[in-house]
Design goal:
The structure is a homodimer. Chain A is α+β, with helices and mostly antiparallel strands and about 300 residues long. In chain A, strands 1-2-3-4-5-6-9 form a seven-stranded antiparallel beta sheet. Chain A has a two-stranded antiparallel ribbon with strand order 7-8. β10 of chain A pairs antiparallel with β10 of chain B, so a sheet runs across the interface. Chains A, B: Its cofactor is a divalent metal cation.
């Protein structure tokens, strides 16, 4: 056991945000705008958004570090003993919405949380993960995505990847559609064993693994020609993203219901979305293949 | 006190759905498609949608009548004594998304609920209302909308309109934006006094009042010329509609979380929606006027 080094976590997160923005910007050509903001209760953040790029219709990459003297009870529903403690929460969270429907949407998040009370050991944990949401599936991409996830987990134990892969599949499930949001990846939370250094290393591996998992897929698909049909399907499927985030995603709901910065939280919303009553893909079409071959939970590696 | 006449309520609701569809179709020229569906636990519905009309980009008008032997506890959170009783729930619910941004979006709903237990008096109530969501506000339209609502309430008592107008304003509030969804109208629930006939009459007045409130506004605005700027703003503001319905609307959430028919529930989603990070209307613009002069709660009559 060792003491959590909050400063080191923050430095890592700020650097991660920089790196991810630089690399997305480099591949696209467009630049990120930045808003710095402060939270009334304590702390603030750095929201960055790239819009109307050649490859990315929108990419939002947020850093935030908020703290307060007394944690609201609603923030610790599953650990009521932490209510009222002083706390720190920091993280990087991003969603990338590509223009080309052959390039999948991606999401990543890494976060650290700590609650303190005079005279007590601090309580802390890490969480995070990344997941992929294709519109048109490619087996090669799905395998690369999951292999990258598996490889970064390997040094931390054989059971890590299967556990966090399943957690991701369980989490990104749209109950009212009986559908996965995408093809999954990694999701972990409440990570605080065996010690801080180990957990921090794992969180860094996940944060750093995201670009390694995503960029080769972007490179492979970014020049594929697409038309109105593919765009229509992409906009329709983006509706599922909205439905998941607004109806089921605990982070989004918690943020919106407790006075988080709405514009930063809803940077995850796609720039353009379509709903169509009772849409069904044509049998045997590439759109049907997404539902049949990619969305059902599968072991890709 | 008199016995609830479920059959009469159902006949009224079916007829209301017919009338509304006929009139919307008559003004637009396009026709409604119908899906009849059945619910596994008992009952079913009749979902109707008009799409790609000259005036209405989409109009969804649903009738449903569901029943069961044992009400789920989740359905009666605020009246736990009703859990396990046999129940009937029926209603008409509609959302109209016009193409022309000068024509406001409208929503209406009327519903009846009854729970029974052998040896006990049945417990029943009515609910409903209608509300308007303009993109570009017109004082004349707002006054007409609210006057129609007031006039239909008048025969039921002087206090009815102010009470249900306020309930509507309170309900259609988007907390995470600190904004009203639109300019309001009427909202009522749990109505079961003084007796069935009185309540049923009021529900009929609300159901019949919707077209009277909405159609003159459609007629006045449908031919106004509009361009990309107005369309962009309409699509952006539709995002607020999605946010309200998926994050805050109890009916939508309850339906999605308890296995309701997803396609019918989400017929309320706009056909096309836009999100834009940190959008602010230009000062002094017609878009700014919506936020300044129309969305804040106001007495229009």
């Amino acid at each position: 056991m060792n003491t959590p080094d909050i400063h080191a976590v923050k430095q890592f997160l700020l650097h991660l945000q920089d790196t991810i923005c630089q690399q997305l910007s480099a591949i696209d050509g467009a630049t990120f705008e930045e808003d710095s903001w402060q939270r009334e209760g304590g702390g603030g953040g750095r929201s960055r958004v790239l819009r109307g790029g050649a490859i990315f219709e929108q990419a939002g990459v947020n850093f935030s570090h908020v703290h307060g003297d007394a944690m609201p009870a609603s923030a610790t529903a599953h650990r009521p003993e932490l209510a009222g403690r002083s706390f720190e929460a920091m993280g990087v969270s991003l969603v990338v919405h590509p223009l080309n429907p052959y390039v999948p949407t991606s999401h990543a998040n890494v976060r650290f949380f700590m609650a303190e009370k005079p005279g007590c050991e601090p309580v802390w944990w890490f969480g995070g993960g990344f997941d992929l949401t294709p519109f048109y599936g490619f087996e090669e991409d799905a395998i690369h995505w999951h292999k990258t996830a598996r490889d970064l987990c390997q040094p931390f134990g054989e059971d890590v990847f299967p556990r966090y892969k399943k957690w991701c599949d369980d989490y990104f499930f749209i109950k009212h559609r009986n559908e996965q949001r995408g093809i999954g990846g990694l999701f972990f939370d409440d990570l605080n064993t065996p010690d801080f250094d180990h957990c921090f290393s794992f969180m860094q591996a996940v944060g750093n693994g995201y670009l390694e998992a995503y960029l080769p897929i972007v490179e492979r698909r970014k020049a594929l020609p697409w038309g109105e049909r593919e765009r229509d399907f992409q906009l329709y499927r983006r509706g599922r993203y909205v439905e998941f985030n607004l109806v089921w995603d605990r982070g989004t709901l918690f943020g919106l219901q407790t006075g988080g910065r709405t514009e930063s939280i809803l940077m995850s919303m796609p720039p353009l979305v379509r709903w169509e009553y009772s849409y069904q893909p044509e049998e045997g079409s590439p759109e049907a293949a997404l539902y049949r071959d990619f969305l059902p939970v599968k072991d890709w590696v």
